[in-house]
Amino acid sequence: GRDGPTLIRIEPKTGSTAGSLTNLSVRSYVDPQESPLIVGFVAAGTGGTLRALVRASGPALVPFGVTDALPNPNLELFLDSVRTVENNDWPENLAPLFAAVGAFSFPAASFDAALVSGLGAGSYSALIQPSTGTGAGTALAEVYAMPEPGQGSRRLVNASARGRVGPDRPLIAGFSLQGEVPR
């Protein structure tokens, strides 16, 4: 207004849940001769660990029209600079979990990669590169937060990505939010 800015305070409705980052994804071209796809994220908050599903999709992208999909992605998860877990081909017992978090399914016995990990507070990196002896292609890195009741307030709070880009090779980032109150 004429007398200066007007501040408006928005109060959350009673019983509403705070907004939080529940999924992040990055699609990029991966070449063993040039660079891997690296997705960084931070888990913050108090108490327990945050259960997370981390995936590296390659062959599963073909039905979505990705004609140059990475044929056999390898997925490594790091806490700071220490590798904590690695997966080359996904265990099929994770299929029900994909549906539970809203992820698209992987074909049975595909060469996509996926893992579940408990995240304490810290900075994490998911590194996706071709498995030894396989070729380059487009990959999708995904991280799904799966908070469990009574496990504290641990949540995803930040995301970053590094990948190879070019005229016909964009780096595309996406994310999902859940909750009723903005953060």
Instruction: Evaluate the radius of gyration.
Output: 18 Å
Helix content: under 10%
State the major sheet: 5 strands, antiparallel
What is the CA-CA span between the terminal residues?
Answer: 27 Å
Q: What would the average pLDDT be, to the nearest integer? A: 83
How much of the polypeptide forms β-strand, as a percent range?
35-45%
* Total strands: 10
Tally the helices.
1
Widest sheet, order of strands: 6-3-8-1-10
The structural class is mainly beta
Question: What letter string, H or E per element, gives the SSE order?
Answer: EEEEEHEEEEE
Can you tell me the residue ranges where pLDDT is under 50 for at least 5 consecutive residues? 8-12
Overall 3D geometry? globular
Polypeptide structure, described:
The longest helix is centred in the middle third of the chain and has 7 residues, at about 95-100. Strand 4 (about 75-80) and strand 5 (about 80-85) form a beta hairpin. The strands form 2 sheets. This protein has a 5-stranded antiparallel β-sheet, with helices on one face. Helices cover about 5% and strands about 45% of the residues. The protein is mainly beta. The protein has one helix at about 95-100; strands at about 20-30, 35-45, 50-55, 75-80, 80-85, 115-120, 120-130, 135-145, 155-160, 170-180. It contains 1 helix and 10 strands. The radius of gyration is 18 Å and the shape is globular.
